[in-house]
Every structure is written in structure tokens, then in C-alpha cells.
Amino acid sequence: MPPAEIKLSDFDFDLPAGLIAQAPLSARSASRLLLVDPAREQLHDREFTDLGACLQAGDLLVFNDTRVIPARLFGRKSSGGKVEVMVERVIDDATLLAHVRASKAPKPGSDLILEDVIQCRVIERQHDLFVLRQLQGNWLQLLEQHGHVPLPPYIQRDDVDTDRERYQTVYARNPGAVAAPTAGLHFDNGMLEALQRQGVATAGLTLHVGAGTFQPIRGDDIASHVMHAERVEVPQATVQAVEAARQRGGRVVAIGTTVVRSLETAAAKGTLCAFDGESQLFIKPGFRFRVVDAMLTNFHLPRSTLLMLVSAFAGSELMRRAYAHAVAARYRFFSYGDAMFIANRADPDEA
Predict the structure, then answer these.
(1) In Å, how far are 29, 31, 50, 132 from 150, measured between CA atoms?
(2) How many helices (H) and strands (E) would you count in the chain?
(3) How far apart are CA 321 and CA 323, in angstroms?
(4) Neighbours of 67 (CB within 10 A)
(5) Residue 110 contacts residue 122 (beta carbons within 8 Å)
(6) How far apart are CA 293 and CA 270, in angstroms?
(7) Chain segment 72-126, per-residue pLDDT in tens
(8) I need a labelling partner for 256 at 20 to 30 A (CA). Which of 115, 145, 211, 283 fits?
(9) Exposed, middle or buried: residue 226 (CB in 10 Å: 0-12, 13-18, 19+)?
């Protein structure tokens, strides 16, 4: 059970604005890598190209193959006021769920004109989200043609053409995410091929990251926080790949927090099984991991649920040390930033 005294303020830290990466490096694999070893409570500065030395033949890397859609649209209400639409989820060809920013929230039954070409109607409001419907074609196709790359709010610039490629993993397959699974952004095809030659196995799953991933926790009592729902599919082939890794003595290495949440959601009843549904799993200190043995991740926002997840995995005290070291050593933070490899999970009593 998580300690009752855990508070949101336990996951705060000072982050100089200059360490928030505003653009990708010239090469995907040019990032730095902080190696975190909970078993020895050690930190080591590495380069991302050293990742192979942190892995061994028989390990299994599990990737999230979701593909980011150009999910941001600008436009106006039919009455004239400006609006910004950030897609949360495409429901079907004609319908999507979205955040709508405007000086005054649009009412159900009102129309929006987006990017001067897409006319859609507000069907209903669901808490902070709006259901939008259009009859001009397929939403995914319209977004590809007219949408903007949904860069996170901490990237203080407009999207550019190169973001369409770089805010996307090289193995992205299934469109539906509105934020990238950023740990995977460091891999290029050359590194994937080198790891394969090394005897490292790979498997995939899909979690469509929603805009709710940036949702702040309100209040200092984290126990009352409700996670946003995200669509998850863990195929049977990946379940079998995990079982095979176990049998040969390899580690299950999650490439990103989205993979951690997906695998642990699929194992929530005690055994990893194929899964196709929604997850609202909130992983915080005290959580007992059933599947993931090691993980690759980027550096996360202060006071965020993702920082709580990695603290649950590596131990809160070691993670505080790791983040203080990363700030002092001027690692680059967040989506386009550097990476951390947590070589093994901490003892649950230490997390």
C-alpha cells in the first residue's frame, strides 16, 4: 500500500526553463542517456548510442506503435469568435472528442469552421471535452490534410514541417495518438537493426496517448486524482513474447511509460493476458509491478503522474537524486529531450 503521507509536493523540483528542449537534435540517437541502477543505487552518464551496452541478448524491448495524428486545428465559430481545437480521440469517421479553446465555450448545436475548410457541429459537451461531428469525409484524412502537429504546451513555438517526422517514432503504425510516446523518439532504424543483431527481441502494443497526459493534478492529495482514459491494445503475440523472454531469462524492457501502463493494465488481474480496452491505471509509489523489469523513459514534468510512475519503479529517493543530477548536468527535458534507462525495478518496499 502506498504510504498515506505521500503528497504532490513530494514530486516537485526546480527546473530551469532553459533545460526544456524546444526542438529535436539533428539526429534521433544523439541524445544523452542517464543510466539509473536501483539495485546498486547508482547513476551513470552515458550517450543514447550506449543503450546496447545496457541490454543483453534475450532481453525483450516492448514498443508503443501508436502514430501521432495532426490533432490541432484552428478556426472560428460560425458566429465569428476564434477557436482552437485539440483532438482527444477520433471516435469514428465523422465524430471526434476534443478540447475546444475559445473566449466563450461553444454550445451544443453550434457550428465551427476549422482551417477555413472543415465545417463541423458541436453535438454535446462531456465535462471538459466536446463531441464534434462533420459530414465532409473521414476525420483522420481531414486531420492529415489540414491539421497541425500537436506539440506539447511546454514547447513554446509553432509547429514546423520537420515536426511531422520528428514528433513521431520510426516504428509508428497505428494512427490515433495526440501526443508522442517520447521515449521511442530516440530510436533510428540503424539502432533497431543493431539491437536485433545483438540478440535483443522486440514486440509491440498500442496505446493512443491522449491530450489528458498533460492534465495537471489538482490539490496536494494525489489519492483523489482520477487518470484520463486511454485506449490500449496488447496483442496475444506480445503476451507470448513476454512469456518467451521469461523462459530464456531475459528482461521485459518497456520503451516508455505508455508501455509500462499498457502491460501492467493487461496484467492487472494477476497474469498478463491479451487486452483491448481502456486504461485509467494510476501508477504511484507503492504499486507492485507484475510485468516490466526495466524501462527507458524521458525526463518528466514536475508534479506529474509520469514522475510518480518512474518513482514507483525506481524508488522515490533515487529518482529525486536522478532528477537533481540531470538538472545539475544540464540534461534536456521533456518530449524532445534526453533519456533515462532504469536498469531494473526497485524493491517494492523501497519504492
Answers:
(1) 22, 22, 30, 18
(2) 8, 17
(3) 6
(4) 17
(5) yes
(6) 16
(7) 999 999 989 999 999 999 999 999 999 999 999 999 999 999 999 999 999 999 9
(8) 145
(9) exposed
Q: Where are the domains of the chain?
A: 8-68+164-342, 72-146
- pTM for the model: 0.94
CB 125 within 8 A of CB 105: yes
Strands of 32-37's sheet, edge to edge? 42-47, 32-37, 339-342, 294-298, 252-255, 60-64, 201-208, 230-234, 275-279
Q: Is 143 helix (H, G, I), strand (E, B) or coil?
A: helix
Q: Are 113 and 76 in contact (CB under 8 A)?
A: yes
Residue 122: beta bridge partners?
Answer: 132
| Pairwise CA distance, residues 145 & 96, whole Å | 16
CATH of region 72-146, choose from 2.60.120, 2.40.10, 1.10.3470, 1.10.1760: 2.40.10
CATH number of 8-68+164-342: 3.40.1780.10
Q: What is the distance between the alpha carbons of residues 339 and 336, in angstroms, rounded to a whole number?
A: 9
Kindly state the DSSP code that residue 328 receives in the 8-state scheme.
H
pLDDT, tens only, 290-343: 999 999 999 999 999 999 999 999 999 999 999 999 999 999 999 999 999 999
Residue closest to 147 by CA, chosen among 59, 86, 97: 86
The phi, psi pair for 290, rounded to 5°, reads -105, -25
CA distances for 203 relative to 62, 182, 294, 350, angstroms: 5, 17, 15, 30
